[in-house]
Amino acid sequence: MSDPTVLSRFPPEVGDEPPEQRRVVTQQVISAYAEASGDQNPIHLDPEFARTAGLPATIAHGLLTLGTVCAGIESWAGEHAWASRVSCRFSAPVPAGEELRCRAVVTAADAESATVELQVLVSTGERALTRARVELRALSEL
Question: For the whole prediction, is pTM greater than 0.85?
């Protein structure tokens, strides 16, 4: 039996909706990303500094937020495709401990590629990312 959270064929059809993703972005994940990326900005690591900067808490790096939802789309595509291009506008901070919710829909598809539009929200309903999309390309048989 196949896993319903994994795409069973490529390309998907226009209108297909990958399962909703939910993920809490913890301070531990933010700190690990800071270490891996080299981005040690204190708004990501120091709660007191973040508050003095007008933020409610430390916040996730924008690319951490984008990468989290892109990884979910690649997981849904399974072994059939890879994310060849991603784009978005970073529109709201994602505080440590916040749950990201990502809904997606396929808006274009042909034999070799598909475009998946994303809606990425935080618990307040505010969009963390706008104009977010992942372009998938079919993997070639070797």
Answer: yes
